[in-house]
Amino acid sequence: MPWWVHRTARMSESERLENRKMTGRCDVVNYAETETQPPFQQVLSVSHDDLSRYCDRNSPLHQNRLMPFLWSAVFCLAVATLPSAQAQEAAPEPEEGVVDETINYVTVTPTLILNIGKSQSGRFAYLKTDVAISVKGAAGKAIIEAHMPAVKNILVLGVSGQDESTVITAEGREQIRLDLAKAIQEFLLEEAGKPYVEELMFTNFIVQL
Questions:
Q1: More confident position, 25 or 14
Q2: Domain span at residue 52?
Q3: Which of 18, 83, 104, 161 would suit a FRET pair with 196, their CA atoms being 20 to 30 Å apart?
Q4: Distance (Å, whole) CA 150 – CA 179
Q5: Rounded to whole angstroms, what are the CA distances from 40 to 15, 25, 36?
Q6: How many domains does the chain have?
Q7: In the chain, count of helices (H) and strands (E)?
Q8: Taking all residues of the chain, what is their mean pLDDT, rounded to a whole number?
Q9: Mean pLDDT for the stretch of residues 170-195
Q10: Residue 105 and residue 131: Cα distance in Å, rounded?
């Protein structure tokens, strides 16, 4: 049995009330000493009212017991909200009115291998070319990729309709390049509302006669 229980058992009512204010421990206990036991061996008898008054919620002891739980709750809340706060600070919001002018290159795959008719020797002539298209911004790149089947169709029809004398000269290849870029711009203007294409380039151009 705790030492303070024996001490409060020997206190008067006023002393127990004063002790309760100072320590916050329970102060209402009933003891019955037996004649056959030494004075310090006592039987504790606690009524229902005594249990309900064991620790007053306003007592310092009760408040001290709650403090560790309160601090633990505050710490867990701070740890849980820290990652989201860091993510918000790490991702600055885009400024209004800023236009994405980044140049992106979209490569047309696979390599185009086209029949361009017969050569002067009477054999079929073939053209092998790789095409890259430059656009501004991520939106332009996404539009080109979304309409890639139509873009390939424009390239195939535009290149395969050329004759031998055009594809073997630098001037002829430059004209083909400009015509294809213009055709794709007109298509995107009609389908997507903007031309998007900045330039069309031949990264590989081989003619077999």
A1: 14
A2: 1-56
A3: 161
A4: 16
A5: 20, 20, 12
A6: 3
A7: 8, 5
A8: 74
A9: 96
A10: 10
Domain identity same for 131 and 188: yes
Measured distance CA(143)–CA(11) in Å, rounded: 89
The token pair that represents 166 in the structure block:
């055009």
Q: What is the CATH number of the domain that holds 142?
A: 3.30.479.30
- 98 occurs within a structural domain: no
Residue recorded with tokens 């919620």 = 57
Q: Which residues pair with 197 in a beta bridge?
A: 135
**DSSP E strand boundaries for the chain:** 30-32, 43-45, 103-118, 124-136, 197-208
Query: According to the model, what pLDDT value does residue 25 have?
Result: 55
Confidence of residue 81 (pLDDT cuts 50, 70, 90): low
- 147's CB contacts (< 8 A; 6+ apart) are 187, 188, 191, 192
Query: What are the C-alpha distances in Å from 75 to residues 64, 65, 66, 83, 178?
Result: 18, 17, 15, 14, 65
Q: Is residue 95 part of a domain?
A: no
* Domain shared by 73 and 157, yes or no: no
3 plus 73 within the same structural domain: no
